[in-house]
Write a structure and sequence with these properties.
This protein has a single domain (2-208), classed as NAD(P)-binding Rossmann-like Domain (Rossmann fold). It has six helices and 13 strands. It has helices spanning 5-19, 51-66, 86-97, 113-126, 142-152, 195-208; strands at 23-28, 39-40, 70-75, 78-79, 100-103, 107-108, 111-112, 130-133, 136-137, 140-141, 160-163, 179-180, 192-194. The strands form six sheets. The chain has a three-stranded parallel β-sheet with strand order 1-3-8, sandwiched between helices.
Length: 221
């Protein structure tokens, strides 16, 4: 719930400051406006759109004000074991309906949670504090991400219609092209593999561990 964001974002940084403990603060690509064809590096100026994005940037600022030993890690379009992520919802929707409509003019970095977690561990071991973008290599539209997820899951025959973002309204606005560049971590030798390879591993792992049924949700776009 949005009203709980201030408590959640301030409590960890305050506790770490009191005990002089480094903190990893995980943020999002949505702190950027998402200008067309723009690729965002760690030093670029955030310009959040919407309440959610502003709350995430406020969390970054609060953590920086409280701590000097801080890693601000921005990620994007995370997917992993949970079924509450974009590719899992796409596969589930395909199984229910047999055809899909997916937004083709929103772009980001599909990022495997396991890869991001391993990169964070390496980052902490480096003891080089700062702002980092930890995303899998490459970027995609929601439409391309959906098609790749279906292909990796053995459902490449499912028809997918590309649509515009205006055709799929959302409660909170999302930046159209908030694509992150991993520049700072790369200088430390920390680079994540292509998102397509990570997605193949996700699909293989998912096929071995049947997903838990979730309550019906609005179809992903």
């Amino acid at each position: 719930m949005p009203c709980s964001h201030p408590l959640r974002r301030h409590a960890p940084s305050g506790t770490c400051a009191e005990r002089d403990i480094p903190l990893v603060h995980v943020s999002t690509n949505e702190v950027f406006a998402g200008a067309p064809a723009r690729f965002y590096r760690e030093y670029d100026q955030p310009a959040p759109v919407g309440v959610y994005a502003r709350s995430k940037l406020a969390g970054e600022i609060a953590a920086r004000q409280a701590l000097s030993r801080l890693y601000v890690v921005r990620v994007a379009w995370l997917f992993g074991k949970s079924e509450r992520n974009f590719p899992a919802k796409i596969v589930a929707a395909a199984d229910r309906h047999g055809r899909l409509r997916v937004v083709a003019d929103e772009f980001g970095n599909p990022t495997y949670a396991s890869d991001a977690a391993n990169a964070i561990i390496r980052l902490v071991q480096s003891e080089r504090y700062g702002v980092y973008h930890l995303v899998n290599e490459g970027h995609a539209s929601r439409y391309e991400f959906a098609c790749a997820a279906l292909q990796a899951s053995g459902r490449g025959q499912v028809p997918v219609e590309p649509i515009r973002a205006e055709e799929w309204p959302r409660p909170a606005p999302a930046p159209r092209h908030a694509v992150l560049v991993n520049q700072a971590a790369a200088t430390l030798g920390i680079q994540l593999r292509p998102w397509q390879d990570a997605l193949d591993d996700w699909a293989a792992q998912r096929s071995k561990e049947p997903p838990v049924e979730l309550a019906a949700e609005r179809e992903p776009a």
